[in-house]
Amino acid sequence: MKNIIMKIRVLLTVILCAVVVLSAQAQHTTFLQQGRIEFEKRVNLFARMDEMSKGEDNSWTDMLKKGMSQYQVTYFDYSFSHQTSLYKPGRDNPDNKKPIWESAPAEVNVVYSRLDSMQSISQKQVFEQMFLVKDSMRQIRWKITDETRKIAGFDCRRANAVIMDSIYVVAFYTDAIVTPGGPESFSGLPGMILGVALPHEHVTWFATKVLIDDIKEEALKPPVKGKPVDNKGIRESVSKILGKWGNYGSAYIRAIML
Q1: What is the pLDDT of residues 107-122, one digit of tens each?
Q2: Among residues 156, 147, 130, which one has the least CA distance to residue 210?
Q3: Are the CB atoms for 143 and 160 separated by under 8 Å?
Q4: 96 with 104: CB under 8 angstroms?
Q5: Confidence band (pLDDT; 50, 70, 90) for 102?
């Protein structure tokens, strides 16, 4: 009987110690509220070109493919501090072969966001015209799933959504980073979005690294150059230029409006 009591006491002691350790770890868990994330944006140019040339003579498209890389890979820096963020072009990719056109849509976007008020200021280049888009951020109705994935060392959970009526979005977010932002205009999840895929648009954004930089909110400045418009204004302007360009024009407009 004494042996049984002793074993029970030992077991209770072990359980109590484990609870204390886990509680201490939980109290000291770090939830990031400021830092810098590098995103790698990858566009499958061949898939996009095939889609845009459906029903047409593909000989010109096939000729273009011979002089370019299948994937266009660019990098963006996303700096954040509490409820303020700034997304802008990052380091150059020396392995990136430029397509025949000099600047692809959304290649040099700058997006400043105030996540507490859901307002953003975006600088977007459309051919020779620079636009400064001031408007509210897109409200996305996310559906969170049980699927998980590790991105840049963080455990992330998957969420799905549909934006702009027909664009299917897959996102992965982590609640270990408190700021509820993400690349481009993607936000609205209970944590930082570290990965986005638009399967039918053939484009992805995934974090390559997360740096715990000391970012001050006052250091995150919105862009100031460009023709002032709102989301409706830039859509109307771009549609006037590209509305008659068939599949190519539609794809360009979607990329600009993301």
Answers
A1: 899 999 999 999 999 9
A2: 156
A3: yes
A4: no
A5: low
